[in-house]
Amino acid sequence: MKRLLTLRSVLQHPASRLAGLLLSSGLLAFSTQATTYPVTTTANAGAGSLRPAILDANADASATAANPHVVTCPLPTSSTSSGGKASRCGWLQNGSITIL
Fold first, then answer.
1. Residue 58 is part of which domain span?
2. pTM above 0.85, yes or no
3. pLDDT at 64
4. Looking at residue 27, what is its pLDDT?
């Protein structure tokens, strides 16, 4: 005889209660911290410029939607960013560029 799997039966299973306890206590946690690549100069290339920050972010394969790479740029508010009509690879948020 097959047993009907319901939400109630899943929640009543001892393993579900243990997982819930571990998650709520912080003993079982998932990291969602972004990798940050700071941009400190407006130079076209070299240390602290946008070019190596993007290259470093692209070389790091750990980026996911839950763990994005963030390039922080202290640029003036009148700065322009162009992708050369390429498809969208990121978005601007609070002065940071997030690259997925």
1. 35-99
2. no
3. 65
4. 46
